[in-house]
């Protein structure tokens, strides 16, 4: 084999391994560590056998193993999780096919299995990486099939490397045309109002710090997790109103808070005369049934969701995939008396808290009701005695006492717990509310991104005549979320990336029949006559713009590939322009050598002969123009440019 040539078989195998690795990367996490290691082992063995062709695993043995995996998978599939066993089986099948001595049919089977794996990954989670993998897979497969066609004719075919590069470029035309057309079809094809495959989609599972109990000192890293918990599409509001309500905890045993089993009666909608703010929540899955909304929610769009009298929004069962819902909230600092005040809001554990009671009396003095609660909150938040931290938290049989008199430092759970205990000691009903505090606002898309690390706990105290009033005793950060976003360039970049993820969720994953109808209506009626929300206009513009941009890029790419000139063509045209400067114009049917023979000026003829001889050697004898030859031709042209025309 010549040094500058390459076997078509080598290209086909390299592309095949690339296809398999891409499919593996998309399902490795869902398949699990054991199956991922098995596949990597089979992949390594396949590469080893390719390099040492003297050994091959018998095909009958590989077929027997494949059948065994199919049978095992049949018995492992269940309604609880029908996807994972099938993905594991397909992954192993790809690894087994790689071990075989491969012909045209085997390569095509590997490609088909890889496509099934990629499609199966969408049943686990349709994230941005799926779109990237899908586009890459389209390019890899189209290129691989083009080369496989040559391989099927002659497996030992050798092609010069420049020719291979040209074949690669031309094979990319197919997906370059297909990608924008696929986007157009995605937008215009009729969409079903019933998600037939939803039952298979498990979605990604995130972890949060929320459950039906909060144990003091059990942080588990949630407040150091920068991943996004949810996004809220809404107008921008003041930072001090950014409390996202989750669940209410009312029972304390001295170490942990839990939610009562005798929950208040649930309602679907709560009447309010206060200023309301509608917002759309895109909530990541977190293995629980509580929904979040801006404090305090009065309605939620999900038909199965219920708002309890304590303003906790719940679903009948745990949700395991990303969900979208609309909520309406009245973000005021207090709420009306919506429920009966049960004795549970005054419950205290049977502990010797004489020092805690004495401290409470000293802090409160003669204050009552709201003034007493405000005094406790100020003492914990502003006295300077206590500090906020996430490590070395008070861990003892009596964490409340340890926090107040020994460590004097803790996270929001300690501050809120201590305040609730002190309020109950002076017969003020109190409870904890778990949720999120703050969020980074994206001016581009008009939504708040709320990270997991913003998980927060605060206190609600019942004040006669005012209802449940929110108090936050945790020392606040010296810098607001808005200031942090303005000062940190890295954070602004992260928000830009998050906007891309948000757009993917809002415009692709949640692109439904209703959005499709509204898009067509906007095209028909025009933006001025359409009476819809500004957020919908933005979605329509983004979808339409993305479609037009994709089509434009595809058209530009095709035009560029079709009309661009190779370096040797540009050099030859430059040579003709230089010759024309001296009065030598190539005649019809005249060869390069014949044209050179007409040159009279000796120094010009010398360089012209050098250029023509090198050009013809590369073109006729070697069949390609190496980078060294291209540079040398360019150097000759520079010398010719420096030659002066003799009058």
Topology:
Elements (H helix, E strand, L loop, with lengths): L4 E3 H24 L1 H19 L7 H18 L6 H17 L4 H21 L3 H26 L4 E3 H11 L1 H16 L24 E3 L12 E6 L9 E7 L1 E2 L3 E3 L7 E2 L9 E7 L4 E4 L1 E2 L2 E4 L5 E3 L4 E7 L3 E7 L4 E2 L18 H11 L4 H14 L4 E2 L10 H9 L1 E2 L1 H14 L4 E8 L2 E3 L4 E5 L3 E9 L3 E5 L9 H7 L1 H21 L3 H13 L8 H30 L3 H15 L10 H6 L4 H21 L4 H16 L5
Parallel strand pairs: 17-18
Antiparallel strand pairs: 1-2, 3-7, 4-9, 4-21, 5-11, 5-19, 6-7, 8-13, 9-15, 10-14, 12-15, 13-14, 16-23, 19-22, 20-21, 22-23
Helix pairs in contact: 1-2, 1-4, 1-5, 1-6, 2-4, 3-4, 4-5, 5-6, 6-8, 8-16, 10-12, 17-20, 19-20
Structure, described:
The structure is a single chain. This protein is α+β, with helices and mostly antiparallel strands. It has 4 domains: 5-171; 213-489, no CATH class; 499-552, no CATH class; 567-642, no CATH class. The chain is built from 20 helices and 23 strands. A 6-stranded antiparallel sheet has the order 12-15-9-4-21-20. It has a 6-stranded antiparallel sheet with strand order 11-5-19-22-23-16, covered by helices on one side. Strands 8-13-14-10 form a 4-stranded antiparallel sheet, with no helix packed on it. Helix 1 (8-31) packs antiparallel against helix 2 (33-51) and helix 10 runs antiparallel to helix 12 (412-425).
């Amino acid at each position: 084999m010549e040094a500058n040539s390459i076997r078509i078989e080598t290209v086909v195998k390299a592309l095949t391994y690339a296809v398999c690795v891409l499919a593996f990367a998309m399902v490795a996490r869902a398949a699990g560590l054991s199956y991922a290691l098995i596949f990597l082992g089979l992949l390594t063995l396949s590469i080893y056998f390719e390099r040492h062709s003297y050994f091959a695993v018998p095909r009958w043995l590989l077929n027997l193993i494949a059948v065994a995996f199919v049978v095992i998978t049949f018995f492992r599939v269940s309604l609880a999780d029908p996807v994972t066993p099938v993905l594991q089986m397909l992954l192993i099948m790809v690894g087994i096919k790689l071990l075989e001595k491969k012909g045209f049919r085997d390569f095509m089977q590997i490609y088909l299995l890889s496509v099934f794996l990629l499609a199966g990954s969408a049943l686990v989670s349709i994230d941005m990486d799926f779109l990237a993998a899908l586009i890459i897979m389209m390019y890899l497969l189209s290129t691989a099939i083009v080369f496989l066609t040559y391989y099927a004719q002659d497996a030992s075919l050798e092609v010069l490397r420049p020719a291979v590069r040209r074949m690669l470029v031309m094979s990319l035309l197919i997906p370059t045309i297909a990608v924008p057309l696929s986007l157009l079809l995605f937008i215009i094809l009729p969409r079903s109002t019933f998600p037939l495959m939803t039952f298979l989609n498990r979605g990604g599972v995130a972890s949060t710090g929320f459950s039906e109990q909060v144990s003091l000192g059990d942080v588990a890293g949630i407040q150091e997790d920068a991943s996004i918990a949810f996004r809220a599409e809404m107008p921008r509001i003041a930072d001090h109103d950014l409390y996202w309500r989750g669940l209410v905890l009312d029972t304390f045993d001295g170490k942990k808070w839990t939610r009562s089993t005798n929950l208040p009666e649930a309602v679907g909608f709560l009447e309010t005369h206060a200023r309301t703010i509608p917002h759309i929540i895109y909530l990541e899955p977190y293995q629980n049934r509580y929904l979040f909304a801006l404090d305090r929610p009065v309605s939620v769009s999900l038909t199965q969701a219920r708002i309890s009298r304590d303003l906790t929004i719940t679903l009948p069962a745990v949700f395991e995939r990303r969900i979208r819902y609309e909520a309406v909230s009245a973000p005021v600092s207090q709420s009306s008396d919506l429920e009966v005040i049960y004795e549970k809001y005054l419950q205290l554990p049977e502990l010797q808290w004489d020092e805690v009671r004495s401290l409470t009396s000293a802090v409160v003095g003669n204050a009552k009701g709201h003034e007493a609660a405000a005094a406790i909150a100020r003492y914990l938040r502003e006295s300077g005695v206590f500090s906020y931290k996430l490590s070395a938290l008070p861990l003892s049989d009596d964490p409340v006492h340890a926090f107040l008199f020994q460590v004097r430092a803790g996270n929001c759970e300690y501050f809120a717990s201590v305040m609730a205990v002190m309020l109950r000691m002076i017969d003020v009903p109190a409870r904890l509310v778990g949720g999120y505090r703050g969020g980074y606002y994206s001016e581009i898309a008009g939504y708040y991104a709320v990270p997991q690390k913003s998980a927060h706990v605060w206190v609600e105290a019942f004040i006669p005549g005012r209802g449940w009033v929110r108090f936050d005793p945790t020392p606040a950060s010296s810098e607001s979320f808005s200031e942090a976003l303005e000062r940190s360039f890295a954070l602004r970049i992260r928000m830009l990336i998050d906007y891309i993820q948000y757009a993917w969720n809002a415009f692709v994953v949640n692109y439904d029949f209703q959005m499709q109808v509204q898009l067509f209506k906007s095209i028909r009626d025009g933006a001025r006559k359409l009476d819809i929300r500004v957020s919908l206009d933005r979605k329509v513009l983004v979808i339409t713009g993305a479609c037009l941009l994709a089509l434009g890029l595809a058209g530009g790419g095709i035009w560029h590939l079709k009309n661009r000139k190779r370096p040797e063509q540009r050099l030859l045209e430059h040579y003709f322009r230089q010759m024309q400067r001296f009065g030598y114009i190539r005649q019809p049917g005249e060869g390069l050598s014949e044209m050179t023979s007409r040159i009279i000026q000796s120094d010009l003829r010398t360089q012209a002969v050098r250029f023509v001889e090198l050009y013809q050697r590369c073109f006729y004898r070697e069949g390609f123009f190496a980078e060294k030859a291209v540079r040398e031709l360019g150097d000759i042209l520079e010398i010719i440019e420096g030659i002066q025309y003799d009058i």
